[in-house]
Here is the input.
Amino acid sequence: MSDTWTPDTWQQFEAKQQPAWPDEAALKEATEEIASFPPLIFAGEARDLTARLGDVAEGNAFLLQAGDCAESFDGFNAVAIREKLRIILQMAVILTYSAGMPVVKIGRIAGQFAKPRSNPTETQDGAELPSFLGHMVNDVEFSETDRTPNPKRLVRAYNQSSSTLNLLRAFSQGGFADLNRVQSWNQEFVANSPEGQRYSDLAEEISRALRFMQTAGITSDHSEVRETEFFTSHEALILQYEEALTRKDSLTDEWYDCSAHMVWIGERTRQLDGAHVEFMRGIKNPIGCKVGPTAAPNDVIQLCEKLNPENTPGRLTLITRMGADKVEDQLPNIVQKVTDSGAKVVWACDPMHGNTFSEAGVKTRHFEHVVAEVASFFKVHRQLGTVPGGIHVELTGEDVTECLGGSMEIESDDLSKRYESVCDPRLNANQSLDLAFRVAELLG
Ligand code: PEP
Ligand code: CO
Here is the structure.
């Protein structure tokens, strides 16, 4: 790999999981249009996030990265965005209190429109069409028109990301994120959930802490109570899109991918000699890389060297996604070897992607497997003396029935009631809060 890097050097490398765009000229037109649009985030914000994640790497903050598996062009409205943010804020309050440290909140939102798939094509009734690759590329419906990659979708993804981010900025700065308000929603969950009693002590402790703060004069007049910091992220899969939004920061002369504060490399595109690693090594944003159960520790070490040659804490988050039954076998060796190599990383646990299975004709996950993977993740890091930095989950603020179990005890027969994900099954609002309280117990 040559040392010269520009936003387009990835094109000299093999890129896995790319759509077969049928019309090169239309693709060029779309990416040129996006390249002319304003950045979605500023370099300074990305630098702030690297610093926050540096705190996570050192065990002085906890990372909560959460949102849709795939955002949709169809379910695009203010309520859906608000409800997703609301759940993440509620989880963050629970975790902040239990961890006794700041929680760095990053949404899988405002750009999470592209999906890697296990098969490039899908066959139904003898007909073979390209797989659904996310709304940035094609549509879910199984027809030739819907499944043909359409570059106009890249422009629409930019536009939807832009309005989503606008609303997120307004919500997080405009009073919606007020701690007292968020905690009152948590109290509602505790009062109304079947397992509420289990969490009522912790919820009451948090309320007491907030009452104390108010008495001490730290009220909603203070921006620390009223406002919050919220960052965006997505998988950087479609490299033409990411390239088009990569801009040189005039302050530092460094390149930033201004499509999101953080971007990550998926489990299927983290080849050391691949295009995604080439692209990501050159941008200065904080970045993530998924690490699955088949990852060789040496490859992970080399990824750290390539993606974070200056070994900056907070620059690289390794998001491990082993599967509940594999974590205790696979994770220790990787964590140990990476630690021995001296690499400074944030360790985050994605308890979703190693725990997917099919049931009643749909993809699902069981809440208890999700909790079990997080518990094992904590156990492994505690045994090794390393930092369990955070969690990375797929959730929605709505009352969907996509994952089994949880305090509402969603069963196989319930899955069809409200299964709305365009890709992987997400925790619903109650399951997400349930998870936050479980993680709180592990942190406490
Ligand atoms: C995802 O995060 O939606 C995803 C596809 O994960 P992974 O790359 O870990 O399979
Ligand atoms: Co997913």
User: Anything to note?
Assistant: The chain has a mean pLDDT of 96. The pocket of phosphoenolpyruvate (ligand 1) is lined by residues 69, 116, 235, 266-268, 290, 321, 353, 424 (CB under 6 Å). The CA atoms of residues 253 and 290 lie 29 Å apart.
